[in-house]
Specification:
Chain lengths: ~260, ~190
C-alpha cells in the first residue's frame, strides 16, 4: 500500500499536465493505467478537470462583454474635438514646413558655393625656386634679406593702373642669387609677411639651407599656396602678377583689374 | 529667367507638398476611423480582462483608442495596428488598475477551505464558474500571475482568438504562447485546488 500511496502522489502531481493534455506518450499511458485502477485518483482527476474548465470558462466570460455604443460615440467625439492630431509632423504647421524649406535651400546654396570654390580651376601654380649660392663665389651663408622698394622705381614697367613692388637683396648678400618668387593675386600679403620676417631676422636662410645638407641647387616646384583673399590687401581691387627683372631682383607687378 | 523658373518650380513643389500633406491627413484620418470600428471591441475586451468592470474598461478603451489616434502617424507598419493597440490597451489598463489599487484597500482573501468545498460540491464547471466566491478567488489569482502569463491567458480567452492569432498579436512564437498558457492555467489550478 505504501507503494500505491507513493504512486498516487506522483499521479496527482501529473494531473494538471494530464488535464492540459501535455503529458508525453509513456507518462500518459501509465497515468491512464493508474486511473483505471484507482477510484480516488479518478475522482481527484475529474475535480482537476472541472477546475481547469471552470477557470477557462470564467476567464472567457470575464472578457465576453460587448462595449456599449457609448464607447465609439465618445471616441469619435474626442477625436473631433482635437482635429489634425493624427497628421504627420512635417505637415502640422505651414511655418514649420516653410522654415524647413528655407533651411534646406540655404544649406544647398552653401554646399554649392563650397563645391564651386574648391572645384574651380586654379589661376596658375605658384612656382618657388630657391637656389643655393655657388660655393665658388662665397662661403658665406645665404641670408634672405629683402626690402620693398617703392613702385615709383619701376615706373618704366608700370602700366596704367598698375603698382610695382620690388624685392631686392641688400648689403653683403647682393652676390647671392635671390629667391625667385612668383606670386599670384591674393598672395602679396604672404610675401610681405615673409619679407618682414626676414628683416626682423626671424627667418634665417642659412639655417634653412644647412638643414638640406646639399650644395646642389634644388627646386621645390610646383608649390601650390592657397590664395589669400585680396580684400586683406591695402588695395582690395587689385590683382597681382609678377615678373623678374634682368638684374635679378624680383618685381611684383600688381595690375588693377578693370 | 532660369532663377525665376526655379523659384516657380519650387513654389509649385511647395504647394504640391501642402496639397499632398492635406491628402495624407485625410487618408490617415480615414484609415484610422476604418480601423477604429473593428478594433474598439478588442481594446475594450483587453481592458476588461484586466479590470473586470465594464464601465472602467470602457474608460480605458476610450483612452487607449485616443492614444492610438494621437500616435497613429508614428506607426510605420499599419498591418501591426491590432497588436499595437492591444499593447496600448494592456498598458493603459494595467496603469489604471495600479492606480485603482492604490486607492482601494486590498481585501483579505477568504479561507481556502471554503473554496475547496465549493469546488467539490460543484456538479460541473459551469456551476463552479458561476460561483461568486470562485470568481472572486480566481480574479485574485489571475492578478497575481506574471504579466506575460496573464496577457496570454486573457488574450486566448477573448472569443475568436486561438493561440496562433494571439501569437501574432503579441508578436511571440506560437509555441511560447502555448507554453505560457499551459503554465498560467496550471498555476491558477494549483492555487485554487
Amino acid at each position: 500500500m505504501a507503494g500505491d500511496t507513493a504512486n498516487c502522489a506522483q499521479i496527482r502531481e501529473r494531473m494538471l499536465d494530464a488535464a492540459s493534455n501535455s503529458l508525453s506518450g509513456t507518462l500518459r499511458a501509465s497515468f491512464d493505467a493508474h486511473l483505471a485502477g484507482c477510484a480516488a485518483c479518478t475522482t481527484e482527476f475529474r475535480r482537476v478537470q472541472t477546475l481547469l474548465q471552470a477557470i477557462d470558462h470564467r476567464v472567457s466570460a470575464s472578457v465576453a462583454a460587448e462595449p456599449s455604443p457609448r464607447l465609439m460615440a465618445n471616441v469619435r467625439r474626442e477625436i473631433a474635438a482635437q482635429p489634425g492630431r493624427v497628421r504627420p509632423w512635417w505637415s502640422r504647421s505651414v511655418w514649420l514646413t516653410a522654415a524647413g524649406a528655407c533651411a534646406a535651400l540655404a544649406l544647398l546654396m552653401l554646399t554649392l558655393r563650397f563645391v564651386h570654390k574648391f572645384n574651380s580651376p586654379a589661376q596658375g601654380h605658384v612656382a618657388v625656386s630657391i637656389h643655393s649660392p655657388s660655393p665658388a663665389k662665397s662661403t658665406a651663408h645665404p641670408r634672405l634679406n629683402a626690402t620693398i622698394e617703392s613702385a615709383a622705381a619701376a615706373q618704366p614697367r608700370k602700366q596704367a593702373g598698375t603698382h610695382v613692388h620690388r624685392l631686392s637683396g641688400s648689403g653683403v648678400h647682393q652676390n647671392f642669387a635671390e629667391p625667385e618668387v612668383i606670386v599670384q593675386p591674393g598672395q602679396m600679403q604672404a610675401v610681405l609677411q615673409l619679407v618682414s620676417a626676414a628683416q626682423k631676422r626671424e627667418i634665417d636662410g642659412a639655417n634653412l639651407l644647412d638643414s638640406q645638407k646639399t650644395s646642389e641647387p634644388f627646386e621645390i616646384k610646383p608649390l601650390t599656396i592657397a590664395p589669400l583673399k585680396i580684400s586683406a590687401l591695402k588695395d582690395d581691387s587689385e590683382s597681382l602678377t609678377s615678373s623678374s627683372s634682368q638684374d635679378g631682383t624680383q618685381e611684383l607687378v600688381s595690375q588693377q583689374s578693370n | 529667367m532660369s532663377g525665376v523658373w526655379h523659384i516657380g518650380k519650387a513654389m509649385d513643389a511647395f504647394a504640391a507638398s501642402r496639397a499632398e500633406s492635406v491628402t495624407d491627413d485625410a487618408s490617415l484620418e480615414r484609415e484610422f476611423h476604418e480601423r477604429l470600428g473593428e478594433c474598439a471591441t478588442l481594446a475594450f475586451r483587453v481592458a476588461l480582462g484586466v479590470l473586470r468592470d465594464c464601465a472602467e474598461a470602457e474608460d480605458v478603451a476610450q483612452e487607449s483608442l485616443l492614444r492610438a489616434y494621437r500616435n497613429f502617424h508614428h506607426l510605420r507598419d499599419r498591418g501591426t495596428f491590432r497588436s499595437w493597440l492591444v499593447r496600448i490597451a494592456w498598458r493603459t489598463a494595467i496603469d489604471h488598475r495600479r492606480a485603482q489599487r492604490r486607492r482601494q484597500r486590498h481585501e483579505e482573501s477568504a479561507a481556502r477551505d471554503g473554496l475547496r468545498q465549493i469546488i467539490s460540491a460543484a456538479q460541473n464547471a459551469e456551476e463552479l464558474a458561476a460561483s461568486c466566491e470562485f470568481e472572486r478567488r480566481l480574479n485574485e489569482e489571475v492578478d497575481t500571475l506574471p504579466e506575460k502569463l496573464r496577457i496570454v491567458m486573457i488574450m486566448v480567452a477573448i472569443e475568436g482568438y486561438d493561440t496562433r492569432e494571439v501569437a501574432g498579436l503579441l508578436r511571440l512564437p506560437e509555441a511560447t504562447v502555448k507554453s505560457r498558457l499551459r503554465l498560467a492555467r496550471k498555476r491558477l489550478a494549483e492555487r485554487l485546488r
